[in-house]
Amino acid sequence: EDVVVIRERSTQHDEVNEEAQSDFDREFARMLADTTDTRRGERKAAPPIFDTAVPHIRRQAEGATAPGVAASGKAGPAAVEQERMQFSLLSKKGNKQQIREIAIPVDSAIAVNSRTHQLQNKAEQEQ
Amino acid sequence: EHACSYCGIHNPQCVVKCLPCNKWFCNSRGNTSASHIVNHLVKAKHKEVVLHRDSALGETIPECYNCGSKNVFMLGFIPAKSDTVVVLLCRQPCAALTSSRDINWDTSQWSAIIDDRSFLSWLVKVPSEAEQLRARQISMSQIAKLEEMWRENPMAKLEDAEAQTGEEEMQPILLRYEDAYQYQNIFGPLVKIEADYDKRMKEAQTESDIIVRWDMGLNQRRLAWFSMPKLESGELKLAVGDELRLKFTGMTSAGTGGMRGLQALNRLGAGHADSTWEGVGSVVKIPNNVSDEICLELRRSDNCPVDCTHGFTVDFVWKATSFDRMQAAMKTFAVDEKSVSGYIYHKLLGHELEPQVLRTQMPKRFSAPNLPELNHSQMAAVKAVLQKPLSLIQGPPGTGKTVTSASIVYHLAKMNSGQVLVCAPSNVAVDHLCEKIHHTGLKVVRLAAKSREALDSSVAFLSLHNQVANADTHPELQKLIQLRDSMGELSQSDERKYKVLVRACERDILNAADVICVTCVGAGDPRLAKFKFRTVLIDEATQSAEPECMIPLVMGCKQVVLVGDHQQLGPVIMNKKAAKAGLSQSLFERLVVLGNRPIRLQVQYRMHPCLSEFPSNMFYEGTLQNGVTAPERLRKNVDFPWPVPETPMFFHQNLGTEEISSSSTSFLNRTEASNVERMVTRFFKSGVLPSQIGVITPYEGQRSYIATYMQLHGSLKKELYKEVEVASVDAFQGREKDYIILSCVRSNEHQGIGFLNDPRRLNVALTRAKYGAVILGNPKVLSKHPLWLYLLTHFKEKGTFVEGPLSNLQPSMIQFSRPKKTLAA
Ligand SMILES: [Zn+2]
Ligand SMILES: [Zn+2]
Ligand SMILES: [Zn+2]
After folding, report:
1. How far is B66 from chain A (nearest CA, A)?
2. Nearest ligand, CA of residue A44?
3. DSSP-based three-state secondary structure for B119
4. pTM for the whole thing?
């Protein structure tokens, strides 16, 4: 976990791990940059701009489950230990659009941004 | 069964199945930097997974909504602008930033499903502490072993990996050697594996889908401009003078995308019947602030497919030259008794010897003509080395190493017969020293590799090939040169005559020289094969591997001066096995360990005293004296908001997160980049020129991001920002700037600080600035490392540890972390 060694006598074992760690760092970086996917955009003359319409989702009052999501809304006891915000995930099943409810922790990037956004919009509308 | 194949955790909410190999892995890190599933995907190079049916999304394969890519390393969520709807998209191309306002989705909010090297915890739960404690503990290296075994036997177990221990280790270097054969037997294999590794690395760097822009050089040679995105990974360092092979196939990996290439290919018609072209050239420009492009000068200008832009491939032309020369030098050392004097022979092998004094007439004054007067410690150094067969000089930053070296060379050349051979590992260092020696009035020749002859340098007029071209001693040669220049080429018989004359002329010039300057590897140049060099000075000797230093030494050396600083960056060894076995230790360092005390230059003329204090205490036992005073290093007219005006430095706390730069394998930190821009702009506003500012950052991703960011967001004239040098620590070694901004980048909890944990690299980074230095970084992360904790404490004690906007810097109240390890001396 901790990779620093400042000219210190470390055990053989640590050294092996440290080497494995720096190997891993490099391989991880390479996976993230793998060009087979990253550069697909450049090959297509004009990469399609993703702009699917946002499906309109009617959320019912807090606590109640939205229609059609009963199966995936498995909020077991483990899932409630953190405060969550309800989102809908747009996905595809074959060629059909599918909407699933997911609970995202309130402190995750998506949730934070979404709240900031909502507040901003509200402020703009009120002006 | 869905138990983690590493640790056995089998809570269904915590595991993911790897699609290609059907094994399950959990989302806990154990004691590694990444969660088990991420460890596996990286090690096995697998990219697709299935979530467990009890997970938040049920049994699904995460994929890009738009293009269907299932590469989890590319996938992330983006929200709709108007509603709490999210969708999974791949980072490239589908979520690539678009500026269009009327798109419903906010791609700027893309957030990866693999974050901080584990799956988002709400997608795949992280097992509880208790679960993790009960699980099998598996280390980084055990994982690596297990994965390696799975490649042959997917059913292999960790126990099997345990049983299979220790692969062939390289024999490590020694402190003392019985004889030169033993020396060769130990270094030979290390150089060999380093060479093999280098070859493998470079040859694996083929990049396709390269887009080329054609140009014509002033020398009428064809130039090809292009970018190589992979270069950013930092695994391959491209240098000016390297050779690349450019190929044209007209094909791109997407097929149709190559239309422009294909059409152009058809136009090529006859002469290109096989529809391909390739040409070798040498690199004349590498990516810098101004552009990320590489420029390749092709060896042959004819037949280049200049109409084509797409469908090119680039690979590296690997050359064994430097490694071959090291091996040859070690062989000479072993078999040729006359390769070095008896004294040097035993000294190099670490044998005990009575001190020897060379009988020569000492000069009356020690400063050399046209060079600055030497100070006390420089003079002592010059005096000490002239009559000693082997000496070491340690030159801490800014202590006038080059002037001292040049003065020594001047006296050695005057005192002894025969030429002095002057070397350094890098061309830049050789040029620099060469120029200084030339000032003393000595006759200097700079010998460079053929592939570098066309490159411009400050000492081009001293280069052997230019001296040949301008020589008036061989009138017939001049005639042939004129003929060639007017006709373009020579007849075969003239060509032969020309070559003979060039060789003769080269020999005459080399023979008449007082000093020959060349890189260490260049000392093995066939043009020097017949020469004996009794006196050798190697500058930056701590930056070359031991076998590299041997190349200039085995040419008959009786007296050698090694100049360097083992507290600054050492040799770069790519193969970790070779480095571990000791190839990364320089000859200088081994001689120090053997008890040869280096003479240290002690007065530094570069840094404001407040900047030299920490490096002096930490790296030079507090012996560094200041040859400049604080008032001399304070610019009164520069109104920069230093928190303590008489202490022009501060550490600026940045808590922004680190990420992987989008097109590369390198790290970047956007907050820090924007703060760098603010600092630079502020420096400009207070009257500092762009050329006086240097931005140091350890990562290529950050370098190119900062350069681009300043171009796009800098509030002053774009041109100004272009002239600010943004580069790595390594690129700044041996150089200085008035003001330095250091952007540390790494800012995560689990992965350490990478490059910055090397004390020698930190020393170099801290000692580049003359008038002021700003460090931007995350103190929480950095302070986990003992050396950085000292540095941060130092800044804090001086009242220069701050946060907030430049216009209102406030003392930072953040608590430092406690290092887990202590700093050993
Ligand atoms: Zn797998
Ligand atoms: Zn596990
Ligand atoms: Zn996609």
Report:
1. 7
2. 3
3. strand
4. 0.72
β-sheet bridge partners, residue B210? B312
Residues 6+ apart with CB under 8 A from B114: B38, B72, B73, B120
End-to-end CA distance of chain B: 51
User: What confidence score (pLDDT) does residue B341 get?
Assistant: 96
Phi, psi of B405 (to 5 degrees): -60, -45
- How far CA B185 is from CA of B173, B174, B547, B572, B758, in Å, comes to 10, 11, 12, 22, 30
**Which residues make up the environment of ion ligand 2, defined by Cβ < 5 Å?**
B 4, 6-7, 9, 26, 36
Contact assignment for B750 to A103 by CB distance below 8 Å:
no
Give the model's pLDDT for residue A15.
Answer: 59
Q: Chain B: nearest CA to A63, how far in angstroms?
A: 16
CA of B119 to the centre of ligand 2 (A): 13
Interface with A, mutate which of B46, B83, B309 (most A CBs under 10 A): B83
Distance B46 CA to ligand 1 centre (A): 5
Please tell me the predicted confidence (pLDDT) of residue B506.
95
The backbone region for A13, taken as left when phi is positive above 0, alpha when psi lies in -120 to 50, beta otherwise, is alpha
pLDDT at B289: 66
Q: What does the pLDDT read at residue B195?
A: 93
CB-based contacts of B546, cutoff 8 Å, min separation 6? B173, B187, B583, B585, B586, B587, B590
Residues B684-698: tens digit of each pLDDT: 999 999 999 999 988
Give Cα B772 distance to the centre of its chain. 24
Q: Are B56 and A57 in contact (CB < 8 Å)?
A: no
Q: Is ipTM strictly over 0.85?
A: no
3-state percent breakdown (helix, strand, coil) of chain A, nearest 5: 40, 15, 45
Nearest CA in chain A to B86: A89
Contacting B residues, span 567-596, partner chain A, CB-CB under 8 Å: 576, 580
With 0-12 CB in 10 A as exposed, 13-18 as middle and 19+ as buried, what is B597? exposed
Contacts of A77 in chain B (CB under 8 A): none
Do B139 and A85 count as a contact with CB atoms less than 8 A apart?
no
Distance (angstroms) between ligand 3 centre and the Cα of B58 equals 21
Contact B547, B326 (CB under 8 A): yes
Enter the tokens of residue B608.
Answer: 């404001």
Which residue ranges in chain B fall short of pLDDT 70?
Answer: 96-102, 161-169, 229-236, 251-275, 289-290, 656-667, 747-755, 820-825
B642 three-state secondary structure: coil
Do residues B702 and B668 touch, judged by C-beta distance below 8 A? yes
pLDDT confidence of residue A59: 56
Residues of A in contact with B141 (CB under 8 A): 16-17, 19-20
Angle between helix B140-152 and A12-33 (nearest 10): 60
Interface contact A89-B45, CB threshold 8 A: no
CB-facing half-sphere around the CA of B329: CA atoms within 13 A:
29
Q: Is B757 on the interface with A (CB under 8 A)?
A: yes
H/E element, B208: strand B207-210
CA distance B13 to B358: 78
DSSP H helical segments within B51-157, as ranges? 129-134, 140-152
Q: Return the DSSP state at B628.
A: S
Task: State which H helix or E strand residue B409 sits in.
Answer: helix B401-415
Cα angle for residues A94, A95, A97 (degrees, 5° grid): 100
Phi-psi region of B44 (alpha: psi -120 to 50; beta: other; left: phi over 0): alpha
- Short-list B225, B223, B222, CA closest to B211: B225
Q: Please tell me if residue B122 touches chain A, with a CB cutoff of 8 Å.
A: yes
CA B76 to ligand 3 centroid distance, Å: 10
